[in-house]
Amino acid sequence: MASSLRLRQSLRFSTAFAARSLLNMRFNRSNLIHTGRKTFGVQYAELEAAKERSTALEDPGTIAKLQMYALYKQATEGPCNIPMPSDAHDFMGRAKWQAWSSVGNISQNEAQKEYIDLINGLVGTEAPVKTEEAVGEASVFKDIKVTKGDNVFTILLNRPAKKNANSLLMYNEIIQALDQASKDDSVTVTVITGAGDYYSSGLDLDIFMNIQPKDIPMMAGKGRELLKQYVAAYVDFPKPLVAAVNGPAMGLAATTLGLCDAVYASDTAMFHWPFTDLGISLEGASSYVFPKIMGYAKANEVLLFNKKLTAHEACERGLVTEVFPHDNFQKEVQAKVNYIAQLPPKSVMESKKLIRDQEREKLHTAHEKEAELLEERWQSEEFLHSTISFFAKKAVN
Fold this sequence. Notes:
The chain has helices at residues 2-12, 15-22, 44-54, 62-77, 91-102, 108-124, 168-183, 216-235, 252-255, 286-294, 296-303, 311-316, 329-341, 345-357, 360-377, 381-396; strands at 144-149, 152-157, 189-194, 241-245, 249-250, 262-266, 270-272, 309-310, 322-324. It is an alpha/beta fold.
């Protein structure tokens, strides 16, 4: 589909423009409804049926939404026949104009076919992903599931359709769950793991696609405070905290592993910290913890230069405690956790306190400085540009 390829390429190479356009539009269905003058080609009935199906899509993503709009306009009205909006603050209008113009001069019949193919592809790949149900004590959370039994408190990151990307709600729920576990006398050890194939793909960048320009400073400030609370919950957690990394771990989900007491990884896990790729800076006290664990040269390789690590490489560098074959991962981790759960709880807590107290002040200082810098980076042109580049690359690939 040549025109779809041309559209994706145009979006990819127009990220400087898109950074100002896309970041400032609100992607709800009402403002990306692809309306236009009706045509009566041979595929018109199929076109309208595809348009109707598109409204049921959960969230096809930023680039797909622009492709849908542009191809529908081309199919119903032909090549873009309106000037670019003159108002520089009309971000939505300019982005949609750019997308429609990028389709070029393909015929309306061809655009109809490509639109139908696009919707069919999106609908076909949107098979429902089952979230995990809580077992035992009922969970009151939405983006995580909490279970408790046999002295073990388990926090399951439960957004498998989003690769367990961290929503703002998920951050708050994890803070709340860790607080519950810390105060529950029946809990000896807490485990964090992910539903589905991922541990976590990191921060859900769609968060930034719904922020108006005037709200960015306020949201950055709120983000700084939430990040400080979130990392502090790990630093000050008084009981053994185990990460069971069942698949890829990225961003803050991967940096906070350095604050856990044991990290067990499936051999399918991959670790990635793409901070400078995204134009932001370090988080999770990683500026202090990672050089201490890995040494400066190895820490710089992953934190500054975005090197991905396999589970075995992460183990060699001291971030991961032990790696297990994926087929036996759950069984092996359960055995480790069961052993910890039967240890004398007070003895373990007091011993952990001795260890953590040696570093507690330094950890808090590090993550608070990181949060302050991140507040600035979230408002930077580099971050806006890099975020759109991220979405464009995903669309092309």
